[in-house]
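Q&A log
Question type: sequence-to-structure
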Amino acid sequence: MAMEQKKMQKLMAHLILLDESGFLLIPKVKRTWAPRGETPIHYHVFSREKISAISALTVSPQRKQLSLYTHLWRNDISTEEVIEFLKPLLRHLRGNIIILWDNALSSTSPEGLDELEKMLTASIRKTGGSQKLLWACIRASDLPWK
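Response status: OK
Response body:
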């Protein structure tokens, strides 16, 4: 029996759902309205500045605990940033791991980098501090979940 438990423990692994995104100060394109014959004009300050984020939602091997790890940069994410993010994460998670990595972009139009960073930080705190929201991410996925 003890031998079977050891084999099962070796098969169990932390699941890491990893993603990175870039958040630009360029406003998103969307429909609007204006009186007939009057072209709507939207003014904004054009800037290519952005904040890049890399995040990992981790699921414990026993599927009981979820955690959110995030890091923000005010530049593009390169191989060095990914390594900088993963090293402490992998030291924190003992045992086997499975990483699922996806790409997605967010649409938002903040007034500047400071506002964008505040929005991202607030969203990270809200999501990371709520087991309900973290589990909703898992349950909404197409992962085979028991």
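Response note: The longest helix spans residues 113-128.
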